[in-house]
Design a protein that fits this description.
Radius of gyration: 22 Å
Shape: globular
Helix content: over 70%
Number of domains: 1
Strand content: under 5%
Order of helices and strands: HHHHHHHHHHHHHHH
Protein backbone atom coordinates (compact mmCIF):
# COMPACT_ATOMS: atom_id res chain seq x y z
CA UNK A 1 0.00 0.00 0.00
CA UNK A 2 2.96 2.24 -0.40
CA UNK A 3 5.24 3.47 -3.15
CA UNK A 4 8.08 1.12 -3.95
CA UNK A 5 11.53 2.72 -3.78
CA UNK A 6 13.50 3.27 -6.92
CA UNK A 7 17.26 3.52 -7.26
CA UNK A 8 17.36 7.16 -8.25
CA UNK A 9 20.28 9.04 -6.66
CA UNK A 10 19.29 12.46 -5.38
CA UNK A 11 22.78 13.47 -4.26
CA UNK A 12 23.74 17.08 -4.82
CA UNK A 13 26.26 18.40 -7.28
CA UNK A 14 29.72 17.02 -6.74
CA UNK A 15 28.54 13.58 -5.68
CA UNK A 16 28.55 10.52 -7.89
CA UNK A 17 26.14 10.90 -10.82
CA UNK A 18 22.99 8.83 -10.75
CA UNK A 19 23.07 5.45 -12.40
CA UNK A 20 20.57 4.66 -15.15
CA UNK A 21 17.22 3.68 -13.71
CA UNK A 22 16.27 0.06 -13.51
CA UNK A 23 13.98 -1.32 -16.16
CA UNK A 24 10.28 -0.99 -15.33
CA UNK A 25 9.88 -4.77 -15.04
CA UNK A 26 12.50 -4.81 -12.31
CA UNK A 27 10.71 -2.40 -9.99
CA UNK A 28 11.25 -4.46 -6.84
CA UNK A 29 8.79 -6.96 -8.23
CA UNK A 30 9.09 -9.22 -5.20
CA UNK A 31 7.47 -6.55 -3.04
CA UNK A 32 4.71 -6.09 -5.60
CA UNK A 33 4.15 -9.85 -5.51
CA UNK A 34 3.89 -9.83 -1.72
CA UNK A 35 1.40 -6.98 -1.74
CA UNK A 36 -0.73 -8.62 -4.39
CA UNK A 37 -0.81 -11.96 -2.57
CA UNK A 38 -1.56 -10.27 0.76
CA UNK A 39 -4.48 -8.33 -0.73
CA UNK A 40 -6.00 -11.50 -2.22
CA UNK A 41 -5.80 -13.30 1.13
CA UNK A 42 -7.66 -10.44 2.79
CA UNK A 43 -10.32 -10.58 0.06
CA UNK A 44 -10.72 -14.34 0.57
CA UNK A 45 -11.10 -13.79 4.30
CA UNK A 46 -13.95 -11.28 3.92
CA UNK A 47 -15.67 -12.82 0.90
CA UNK A 48 -15.64 -16.18 2.66
CA UNK A 49 -18.45 -15.05 4.93
CA UNK A 50 -20.79 -15.11 1.91
CA UNK A 51 -19.34 -17.65 -0.51
CA UNK A 52 -16.90 -20.55 -0.11
CA UNK A 53 -17.89 -20.68 3.55
CA UNK A 54 -16.82 -24.29 3.92
CA UNK A 55 -13.40 -23.57 2.42
CA UNK A 56 -13.03 -20.61 4.75
CA UNK A 57 -13.94 -22.77 7.74
CA UNK A 58 -11.33 -25.38 6.78
CA UNK A 59 -8.64 -22.71 6.30
CA UNK A 60 -9.53 -21.10 9.63
CA UNK A 61 -8.84 -24.40 11.35
CA UNK A 62 -5.18 -23.67 10.75
CA UNK A 63 -4.69 -19.95 10.21
CA UNK A 64 -6.40 -16.59 9.74
CA UNK A 65 -5.92 -15.46 6.10
CA UNK A 66 -6.93 -11.86 6.83
CA UNK A 67 -4.49 -11.55 9.69
CA UNK A 68 -1.78 -13.16 7.60
CA UNK A 69 -2.43 -10.70 4.78
CA UNK A 70 -2.19 -7.58 6.94
CA UNK A 71 0.98 -8.87 8.63
CA UNK A 72 2.60 -9.20 5.20
CA UNK A 73 1.35 -5.71 4.28
CA UNK A 74 2.89 -4.20 7.40
CA UNK A 75 6.28 -5.80 6.80
CA UNK A 76 6.25 -4.57 3.21
CA UNK A 77 5.41 -1.04 4.41
CA UNK A 78 8.21 -1.21 6.95
CA UNK A 79 10.62 -2.12 4.17
CA UNK A 80 9.41 0.38 1.56
CA UNK A 81 8.48 3.54 3.44
CA UNK A 82 11.93 4.37 4.90
CA UNK A 83 13.40 3.75 1.45
CA UNK A 84 10.92 6.24 0.01
CA UNK A 85 11.87 8.83 2.61
CA UNK A 86 15.61 8.33 2.13
CA UNK A 87 15.28 8.44 -1.64
CA UNK A 88 13.54 11.79 -1.51
CA UNK A 89 15.81 13.21 1.18
CA UNK A 90 12.92 15.51 2.13
CA UNK A 91 10.30 15.28 4.84
CA UNK A 92 8.05 17.64 2.88
CA UNK A 93 8.24 15.63 -0.35
CA UNK A 94 7.67 12.43 1.60
CA UNK A 95 4.43 13.73 3.15
CA UNK A 96 3.23 15.16 -0.14
CA UNK A 97 3.76 11.75 -1.72
CA UNK A 98 1.90 10.01 1.14
CA UNK A 99 -1.07 12.36 0.90
CA UNK A 100 -1.38 12.04 -2.88
CA UNK A 101 -0.75 8.29 -2.70
CA UNK A 102 -3.30 7.40 -0.02
CA UNK A 103 -5.95 10.09 0.31
CA UNK A 104 -7.61 10.24 -3.14
CA UNK A 105 -8.68 6.58 -3.09
CA UNK A 106 -9.40 6.77 0.65
CA UNK A 107 -11.80 9.68 0.13
CA UNK A 108 -13.36 7.96 -2.87
CA UNK A 109 -13.92 4.84 -0.77
CA UNK A 110 -15.54 6.80 2.06
CA UNK A 111 -17.84 8.64 -0.37
CA UNK A 112 -18.87 5.35 -1.97
CA UNK A 113 -19.51 3.82 1.47
CA UNK A 114 -21.82 6.70 2.38
CA UNK A 115 -23.56 6.46 -0.99
CA UNK A 116 -24.17 2.72 -0.57
CA UNK A 117 -25.55 3.37 2.91
CA UNK A 118 -27.91 6.03 1.59
CA UNK A 119 -29.11 3.62 -1.10
CA UNK A 120 -29.71 0.88 1.45
CA UNK A 121 -26.99 -1.33 -0.05
CA UNK A 122 -24.74 -1.41 2.98
CA UNK A 123 -23.88 0.19 6.27
CA UNK A 124 -21.10 2.62 7.00
CA UNK A 125 -19.07 -0.08 8.64
CA UNK A 126 -19.73 -0.04 12.37
CA UNK A 127 -19.58 3.70 12.93
CA UNK A 128 -21.86 5.39 15.43
CA UNK A 129 -23.33 7.50 12.58
CA UNK A 130 -22.40 10.69 14.40
CA UNK A 131 -21.37 12.45 11.22
CA UNK A 132 -19.30 15.29 12.66
CA UNK A 133 -17.41 13.14 15.15
CA UNK A 134 -16.80 10.43 12.55
CA UNK A 135 -15.46 13.04 10.17
CA UNK A 136 -12.99 14.22 12.83
CA UNK A 137 -11.83 10.69 13.57
CA UNK A 138 -11.46 9.72 9.90
CA UNK A 139 -9.84 12.87 8.50
CA UNK A 140 -6.29 11.78 9.41
CA UNK A 141 -6.93 8.05 8.87
CA UNK A 142 -6.75 7.55 12.64
CA UNK A 143 -10.30 6.35 13.30
CA UNK A 144 -9.04 3.11 14.86
CA UNK A 145 -7.21 5.00 17.62
CA UNK A 146 -9.68 7.86 18.10
CA UNK A 147 -12.45 6.01 19.87
CA UNK A 148 -14.87 5.30 17.01
CA UNK A 149 -15.46 2.44 14.62
CA UNK A 150 -14.24 2.47 11.04
CA UNK A 151 -16.55 3.49 8.19
CA UNK A 152 -14.91 0.78 6.06
CA UNK A 153 -13.73 -2.09 8.24
CA UNK A 154 -10.35 -2.53 6.56
CA UNK A 155 -9.19 1.06 7.13
CA UNK A 156 -8.20 0.15 10.67
CA UNK A 157 -4.77 -0.74 9.27
CA UNK A 158 -4.31 2.79 7.94
CA UNK A 159 -4.25 4.09 11.51
CA UNK A 160 -1.09 2.09 12.16
CA UNK A 161 0.38 3.04 8.80
CA UNK A 162 -0.13 6.70 9.70
CA UNK A 163 1.33 6.21 13.19
CA UNK A 164 4.38 4.56 11.61
CA UNK A 165 4.83 7.48 9.19
CA UNK A 166 4.69 9.97 12.05
CA UNK A 167 7.10 7.95 14.17
CA UNK A 168 9.46 7.49 11.23
CA UNK A 169 9.41 11.24 10.52
CA UNK A 170 10.46 11.99 14.11
CA UNK A 171 13.25 9.39 13.96
CA UNK A 172 14.62 10.81 10.70
CA UNK A 173 14.48 14.40 11.86
CA UNK A 174 16.25 13.57 15.13
CA UNK A 175 18.85 11.35 13.43
CA UNK A 176 17.85 8.17 15.27
CA UNK A 177 16.32 6.28 12.35
CA UNK A 178 19.17 3.80 11.84
CA UNK A 179 18.32 1.82 14.99
CA UNK A 180 15.58 -0.24 13.40
CA UNK A 181 16.53 -3.52 15.09
CA UNK A 182 16.35 -1.86 18.48
CA UNK A 183 12.89 -0.46 17.81
CA UNK A 184 11.64 -3.80 16.48
CA UNK A 185 12.78 -5.59 19.62
CA UNK A 186 11.44 -2.85 21.93
CA UNK A 187 7.94 -3.05 20.41
CA UNK A 188 8.01 -6.87 20.45
CA UNK A 189 9.03 -6.90 24.13
CA UNK A 190 6.32 -4.32 24.86
CA UNK A 191 3.76 -6.59 23.15
CA UNK A 192 4.64 -9.31 25.66
CA UNK A 193 5.03 -7.10 28.73
CA UNK A 194 2.23 -4.57 28.14
CA UNK A 195 -0.03 -6.17 25.54
CA UNK A 196 -2.48 -7.41 28.15
CA UNK A 197 -2.21 -4.39 30.45
CA UNK A 198 -2.76 -1.35 28.24
CA UNK A 199 -6.38 -0.12 28.03
CA UNK A 200 -8.52 0.37 24.94
CA UNK A 201 -10.30 3.68 24.13
CA UNK A 202 -9.32 4.89 27.59
CA UNK A 203 -8.73 8.49 26.51
CA UNK A 204 -11.90 8.82 24.46
CA UNK A 205 -13.94 7.29 27.29
CA UNK A 206 -12.57 9.87 29.74
CA UNK A 207 -14.41 13.02 30.80
CA UNK A 208 -13.05 14.74 27.67
CA UNK A 209 -15.11 12.60 25.31
CA UNK A 210 -14.49 11.22 21.84
CA UNK A 211 -15.12 14.40 19.88
CA UNK A 212 -12.85 16.69 21.92
CA UNK A 213 -10.04 14.11 21.91
CA UNK A 214 -10.37 13.82 18.13
CA UNK A 215 -10.21 17.61 17.76
CA UNK A 216 -7.14 17.88 20.00
CA UNK A 217 -5.35 14.97 18.32
CA UNK A 218 -6.07 16.26 14.81
CA UNK A 219 -4.81 19.71 15.76
CA UNK A 220 -1.60 18.41 17.37
CA UNK A 221 -0.79 16.07 14.51
CA UNK A 222 -1.59 18.52 11.72
CA UNK A 223 0.34 21.26 13.50
CA UNK A 224 3.23 18.92 14.14
CA UNK A 225 3.47 17.81 10.52
CA UNK A 226 3.20 21.43 9.34
CA UNK A 227 6.23 22.28 11.48
CA UNK A 228 8.07 19.10 10.47
CA UNK A 229 7.97 20.01 6.77
CA UNK A 230 9.44 23.48 7.22
CA UNK A 231 13.08 24.25 6.38
CA UNK A 232 14.35 25.14 9.85
CA UNK A 233 15.71 22.51 12.17
CA UNK A 234 14.27 23.52 15.55
CA UNK A 235 10.58 23.77 14.52
CA UNK A 236 11.10 20.69 12.32
CA UNK A 237 12.25 18.63 15.32
CA UNK A 238 9.59 20.04 17.66
CA UNK A 239 6.79 19.40 15.16
CA UNK A 240 7.90 15.90 14.23
CA UNK A 241 8.27 14.83 17.86
CA UNK A 242 4.92 16.40 18.82
CA UNK A 243 3.06 14.56 16.07
CA UNK A 244 4.82 11.25 16.78
CA UNK A 245 4.20 11.41 20.53
CA UNK A 246 0.52 12.20 19.95
CA UNK A 247 0.17 9.23 17.61
CA UNK A 248 1.94 6.87 20.02
CA UNK A 249 -0.24 7.95 22.95
CA UNK A 250 -3.31 7.16 20.85
CA UNK A 251 -1.93 3.79 19.73
CA UNK A 252 -1.00 2.75 23.27
CA UNK A 253 -4.06 3.97 25.15
CA UNK A 254 -6.93 4.55 22.73
CA UNK A 255 -7.13 1.72 20.20
CA UNK A 256 -10.65 0.52 19.42
CA UNK A 257 -10.34 -2.33 16.91
CA UNK A 258 -7.30 -4.48 17.66
CA UNK A 259 -6.01 -5.38 21.10
CA UNK A 260 -2.86 -3.69 22.47
CA UNK A 261 -0.67 -6.77 22.00
CA UNK A 262 -1.57 -6.83 18.30
CA UNK A 263 -1.02 -3.09 17.88
CA UNK A 264 2.46 -3.39 19.38
CA UNK A 265 3.15 -6.48 17.26
CA UNK A 266 2.22 -4.49 14.15
CA UNK A 267 4.79 -1.79 14.97
CA UNK A 268 7.38 -4.46 15.72
CA UNK A 269 6.75 -6.08 12.33
CA UNK A 270 7.02 -2.75 10.51
CA UNK A 271 10.38 -2.00 12.10
CA UNK A 272 11.46 -5.56 11.31
CA UNK A 273 10.78 -4.79 7.66
CA UNK A 274 12.83 -1.60 8.01
CA UNK A 275 15.67 -3.51 9.64
CA UNK A 276 15.74 -6.04 6.79
CA UNK A 277 15.76 -3.18 4.27
CA UNK A 278 18.82 -1.72 5.99
CA UNK A 279 20.51 -5.12 6.13
CA UNK A 280 19.85 -5.67 2.42
CA UNK A 281 21.47 -2.30 1.68
CA UNK A 282 24.51 -3.14 3.81
CA UNK A 283 23.77 -0.77 6.71
CA UNK A 284 23.35 -3.68 9.10
CA UNK A 285 24.80 -7.18 9.32
CA UNK A 286 22.34 -9.58 7.69
CA UNK A 287 23.02 -12.39 10.15
CA UNK A 288 22.23 -10.10 13.06
CA UNK A 289 19.12 -8.88 11.26
CA UNK A 290 17.89 -12.45 10.76
CA UNK A 291 18.50 -13.22 14.44
CA UNK A 292 16.68 -10.05 15.50
CA UNK A 293 13.77 -10.84 13.17
CA UNK A 294 13.50 -14.35 14.62
CA UNK A 295 13.42 -12.87 18.12
CA UNK A 296 10.64 -10.47 17.09
CA UNK A 297 8.49 -13.30 15.73
CA UNK A 298 9.03 -15.45 18.83
CA UNK A 299 8.12 -12.56 21.13
CA UNK A 300 5.08 -11.67 19.01
CA UNK A 301 3.90 -15.29 19.13
CA UNK A 302 4.28 -15.33 22.92
CA UNK A 303 2.36 -12.03 23.17
CA UNK A 304 -0.60 -13.47 21.28
CA UNK A 305 -0.60 -16.75 23.20
CA UNK A 306 -0.42 -14.94 26.54
CA UNK A 307 -2.80 -12.05 25.89
CA UNK A 308 -5.58 -13.72 23.90
CA UNK A 309 -8.58 -11.37 24.21
CA UNK A 310 -11.54 -12.33 26.44
CA UNK A 311 -13.86 -13.08 23.54
CA UNK A 312 -11.40 -15.76 22.41
CA UNK A 313 -11.26 -17.51 25.78
CA UNK A 314 -14.95 -18.40 26.20
CA UNK A 315 -14.22 -22.06 25.55
CA UNK A 316 -11.07 -24.13 25.47
CA UNK A 317 -11.71 -25.02 21.80
CA UNK A 318 -12.07 -21.37 20.74
CA UNK A 319 -8.99 -20.40 22.73
CA UNK A 320 -6.95 -23.18 21.10
CA UNK A 321 -8.15 -22.12 17.65
CA UNK A 322 -7.12 -18.51 18.28
CA UNK A 323 -3.69 -19.61 19.52
CA UNK A 324 -3.14 -21.73 16.43
CA UNK A 325 -4.37 -19.02 14.05
CA UNK A 326 -2.23 -16.33 15.68
CA UNK A 327 0.99 -18.36 15.58
CA UNK A 328 0.56 -19.81 12.10
CA UNK A 329 -0.56 -16.49 10.57
CA UNK A 330 2.41 -14.71 12.11
CA UNK A 331 4.99 -17.31 11.17
CA UNK A 332 3.62 -17.78 7.64
CA UNK A 333 3.81 -14.01 7.12
CA UNK A 334 7.45 -14.11 8.19
CA UNK A 335 8.21 -17.07 5.93
CA UNK A 336 6.43 -15.35 3.02
CA UNK A 337 8.53 -12.23 3.45
CA UNK A 338 11.71 -14.32 3.74
CA UNK A 339 10.88 -16.18 0.51
CA UNK A 340 10.21 -12.85 -1.18
CA UNK A 341 13.59 -11.51 -0.09
CA UNK A 342 15.31 -14.70 -1.26
CA UNK A 343 13.73 -14.18 -4.70
CA UNK A 344 14.41 -10.45 -4.85
CA UNK A 345 16.92 -10.79 -7.69
CA UNK A 346 14.72 -13.08 -9.75
CA UNK A 347 12.29 -11.99 -12.43
CA UNK A 348 8.68 -12.11 -11.30
CA UNK A 349 5.70 -12.81 -13.57
CA UNK A 350 4.15 -9.58 -14.83
CA UNK A 351 0.82 -10.42 -13.19
CA UNK A 352 2.41 -10.06 -9.76
CA UNK A 353 3.76 -6.62 -10.56
CA UNK A 354 0.29 -5.61 -11.76
CA UNK A 355 -1.37 -6.99 -8.63
CA UNK A 356 1.06 -4.95 -6.58
CA UNK A 357 0.07 -1.79 -8.42
CA UNK A 358 -3.64 -2.28 -7.77
CA UNK A 359 -3.26 -3.85 -4.30
CA UNK A 360 -4.30 -0.68 -2.46
CA UNK A 361 -7.47 -0.50 -4.53
CA UNK A 362 -8.11 -4.21 -3.98
CA UNK A 363 -7.66 -3.82 -0.25
CA UNK A 364 -9.75 -0.68 0.19
CA UNK A 365 -12.58 -1.28 -2.26
CA UNK A 366 -13.37 -4.98 -1.88
CA UNK A 367 -15.60 -4.49 1.23
CA UNK A 368 -17.79 -2.13 -0.79
CA UNK A 369 -18.16 -4.66 -3.60
CA UNK A 370 -18.94 -7.36 -1.04
CA UNK A 371 -21.78 -5.16 0.24
CA UNK A 372 -23.16 -5.01 -3.31
CA UNK A 373 -22.63 -8.74 -3.81
CA UNK A 374 -24.59 -9.48 -0.66
CA UNK A 375 -27.61 -7.59 -2.06
CA UNK A 376 -27.79 -9.49 -5.36
CA UNK A 377 -30.75 -11.94 -5.27
CA UNK A 378 -28.66 -14.71 -6.82
CA UNK A 379 -26.38 -14.75 -3.78
CA UNK A 380 -29.13 -14.97 -1.17
CA UNK A 381 -29.39 -18.77 -0.98
CA UNK A 382 -26.92 -21.66 -0.58
CA UNK A 383 -25.06 -22.97 -3.62
CA UNK A 384 -23.19 -26.19 -4.36
CA UNK A 385 -19.44 -25.88 -4.12
CA UNK A 386 -18.80 -25.66 -7.91
CA UNK A 387 -21.22 -22.75 -8.15
CA UNK A 388 -19.56 -21.08 -5.18
CA UNK A 389 -16.23 -21.29 -6.98
CA UNK A 390 -17.78 -19.68 -10.07
CA UNK A 391 -19.37 -16.91 -7.97
CA UNK A 392 -16.05 -16.23 -6.23
CA UNK A 393 -14.23 -16.16 -9.57
CA UNK A 394 -16.80 -13.77 -11.03
CA UNK A 395 -16.48 -11.52 -7.99
CA UNK A 396 -12.70 -11.48 -8.35
CA UNK A 397 -12.90 -10.59 -12.04
CA UNK A 398 -15.26 -7.69 -11.30
CA UNK A 399 -13.12 -6.56 -8.37
CA UNK A 400 -9.89 -6.55 -10.36
CA UNK A 401 -11.59 -4.72 -13.22
CA UNK A 402 -12.87 -2.02 -10.87
CA UNK A 403 -9.45 -1.77 -9.23
CA UNK A 404 -7.75 -1.33 -12.58
CA UNK A 405 -10.14 1.55 -13.28
CA UNK A 406 -9.57 3.13 -9.87
CA UNK A 407 -5.81 2.84 -10.29
CA UNK A 408 -5.93 4.18 -13.84
CA UNK A 409 -8.21 7.14 -13.15
CA UNK A 410 -7.67 7.93 -9.45
CA UNK A 411 -4.42 6.58 -8.03
CA UNK A 412 -1.98 7.05 -10.92
CA UNK A 413 -3.11 10.57 -11.95
CA UNK A 414 -3.07 11.79 -8.34
CA UNK A 415 0.40 10.37 -7.77
CA UNK A 416 1.59 12.31 -10.81
CA UNK A 417 -0.03 15.44 -9.44
CA UNK A 418 1.72 14.82 -6.14
CA UNK A 419 5.12 14.74 -7.82
CA UNK A 420 4.32 17.99 -9.64
CA UNK A 421 3.11 19.62 -6.43
CA UNK A 422 6.26 18.55 -4.54
CA UNK A 423 8.42 20.01 -7.32
CA UNK A 424 6.37 23.25 -7.23
CA UNK A 425 6.85 23.54 -3.46
CA UNK A 426 10.58 23.02 -3.80
CA UNK A 427 10.79 25.62 -6.57
CA UNK A 428 8.97 28.29 -4.58
CA UNK A 429 10.06 27.51 -1.03
CA UNK A 430 13.43 25.89 -1.56
CA UNK A 431 14.57 22.36 -0.70
CA UNK A 432 13.52 20.71 2.54
CA UNK A 433 16.37 18.32 3.22
CA UNK A 434 16.90 15.77 5.91
CA UNK A 435 19.77 17.04 8.07
CA UNK A 436 23.18 16.99 6.41
CA UNK A 437 24.63 14.08 8.38
CA UNK A 438 21.72 11.92 7.15
CA UNK A 439 22.34 12.98 3.59
CA UNK A 440 26.05 12.21 3.70
CA UNK A 441 25.31 8.69 4.81
CA UNK A 442 22.67 8.39 2.07
CA UNK A 443 25.13 9.55 -0.60
CA UNK A 444 27.71 6.98 0.45
CA UNK A 445 25.19 4.17 -0.01
CA UNK A 446 23.41 5.37 -3.15
CA UNK A 447 25.94 4.02 -5.65
CA UNK A 448 25.82 0.36 -4.66
CA UNK A 449 22.06 -0.21 -5.01
CA UNK A 450 22.04 1.64 -8.32
CA UNK A 451 24.85 -0.53 -9.62
CA UNK A 452 23.03 -3.65 -8.35
CA UNK A 453 19.86 -2.67 -10.22
CA UNK A 454 21.82 -2.24 -13.47
CA UNK A 455 23.46 -5.62 -12.95
CA UNK A 456 20.05 -7.20 -12.55
Amino acid sequence: MSDAPTTQNLSPAGAAPPAPPAAPGRRLAWLDALRGVAALFVVFDHLGYYVLQHAREVVYTWFDPGQYGVFVFFMVSGYIVPASLERRGSIRSFWVSRVFRLYPLYLFGLIMAVLLWKLGLGGIGKTNYDGETSLLTHVLMLSNVLGTKNAIDVIWTLSYEMAFYLLLTALFVTGTHKRSSRYAIIFAVAAVALGGVLPMTAISRSFLGTRLIAEIADLLILGGVALAVCRYRLPKVVGAVLAAVTAMVLVLFNGSWVNPFEALTILALMFTGTMLYRAERGDYDMRKAIAAAAAVFVLAAVAGLWHAPPWDTSTAAVHTAFDRQWVTSLLLAGVTFAVGMACRNKKMPAIFAWLGLVSYSVYLLHPLLISLYNHIPLTQHPHPFPQQVLLAAAFLVVLLGCCWLSYRFIEAPMQRQGRRFAAWLEYWFGPDSIPAHHQRRQQQQAVRPAADSVAR
